[in-house]
Amino acid sequence: MTTTARIVHASVLGNLRLAAGTAGLTRVEFTDAPDAAPTAENSCALEYLLAAVRQIDAYLAGTRREFTVPLDRSALSAFDRDVLSALEAGTPYGHTTTYGALARTLGRGPADARKVGGALARNPLLLLIPCHRVLGADGALTGYAGGLPAKRALLDLESAELRLPLAV
């Protein structure tokens, strides 16, 4: 995996650092870094980056439910890929799951819920791979790389009843 395009994009939830390579988007993460225009060594990677920014903005505005920009998962371990794929396949927009339920989906026992949580904590593609849709066994909000207020805002965005405004 080679990153050939980068940007820091101001979103309604805070600044996001995005990176892409020739195979697709490689990173979406929250950052305290200021806005930064895209830098690119490759036009294909730049297109992925710009498409991701447009899709993220549309998602946060409530006009998009799915992302279509290619994702490059080549740097992930096989276990992390399996967990993130199970999350994507089994937890659509507007739904939630638990760490234990994801572990069961993978044919693992309840004791592996922590391992699933670790894989989600390493998710390099926040928002696009929706780890914000995973809750504790009792339905409680648990850790999120963007912070619990961002997780709550994302869940509210996807719910039938918005409880928190997304405007900053």
Automatic annotation (TrEMBL):
Ranges of residues in domain Methylated-DNA-[protein]-cysteine S-methyltransferase DNA binding: 79-159
Start and end residues of each Methylguanine DNA methyltransferase ribonuclease-like domain: 10-72
TM segment ranges: none
Entries under Pfam families matching the protein: DNA_binding_1, Methyltransf_1N
Keywords, sorted A to Z: DNA damage, DNA repair, Methyltransferase, Transferase
Name of this chain's protein: Methylated-DNA--[protein]-cysteine S-methyltransferase
Superkingdom of the source species: Bacteria
Record's catalysed reaction(s): a 4-O-methyl-thymidine in DNA + L-cysteinyl-[protein] = a thymidine in DNA + S-methyl-L-cysteinyl-[protein]; a 6-O-methyl-2'-deoxyguanosine in DNA + L-cysteinyl-[protein] = S-methyl-L-cysteinyl-[protein] + a 2'-deoxyguanosine in DNA
Alphabetized InterPro entries for the sequence: MethylDNA_cys_MeTrfase_AS (IPR001497), MethylDNA_cys_MeTrfase_DNA-bd (IPR014048), MethylDNA_cys_MeTrfase_DNAb (IPR036217), MethylG_MeTrfase_N (IPR008332), MGMT_N_sf (IPR036631), WH-like_DNA-bd_sf (IPR036388)
Keyword Transferase recorded: yes
